[in-house]
Design goal:
With 162 residues, this protein is mostly helical. The two termini are 29 Å apart. The chain has helices spanning 14-34, 42-61, 65-88, 92-111, 115-122, 132-147. Helix 1 (14-34) packs parallel to helix 6 (132-147) and helix 3 packs antiparallel against helix 4.
């Protein structure tokens, strides 16, 4: 049955899970490369990252235009910056970050082409499946973003999460 016609709650598509995992994976890669920041500001950064990323993720998952456009812009800028970083400094980590940012872009594109997403855009107040688990993944990714330390003069890699 077409997702735009039914009044039953839709299941979150595999593309949403792929997007969540790609974003979380990107944060784990950044943490593995750069390590954690000093303990002085880590709790505040984690909390702020978790709140902002959770809010943005909810907007993306429910088809909110402004938050979705924001994520598209961030993902495109990250892919471009990582491409430039790989061209300027041929490093293994640079290539890994480029692959991660392209994977995030691909998952976002896949998600926005699902029947679920079309249903959210057509009926913004439509009954939704439980999104708590997906939002929890986004909150963890945002909290990890608050843990990641600054680079020590090495090439800059841009990794964003939804």
């Amino acid at each position: 049955m077409n997702a735009l016609v039914t009044d039953q709650p839709l299941e979150a598509p595999p593309a949403a899970w792929a997007l969540a995992c790609a974003c979380l994976g990107g944060q784990v890669l950044m943490l593995a490369e750069q390590g954690a920041q000093s303990e002085d500001a880590i709790l505040g950064s984690m909390l702020l990252g978790a709140l902002v990323v959770g809010w943005v993720a909810h907007g993306v998952l429910t088809g909110r235009t402004v938050r979705l456009a924001f994520v598209w812009i961030l993902f495109v800028v990250a892919a471009i910056a990582n491409t430039v970083g790989v061209v300027d400094h041929l490093t293994g980590w640079g290539f890994v970050h480029l692959v991660a940012s392209v994977a995030q872009l691909a998952c976002l594109a896949w998600f926005t082409r699902t029947d679920y997403f079309a249903g959210q855009r057509a009926k913004p107040r439509h009954q939704r499946p439980p999104l708590g688990a997906l939002i929890a993944v986004a909150i963890v990714a945002g909290a990890l973003g608050g843990v990641i330390g600054a680079t020590d003069g090495s090439p800059t890699h841009v990794q964003v999460d939804f």
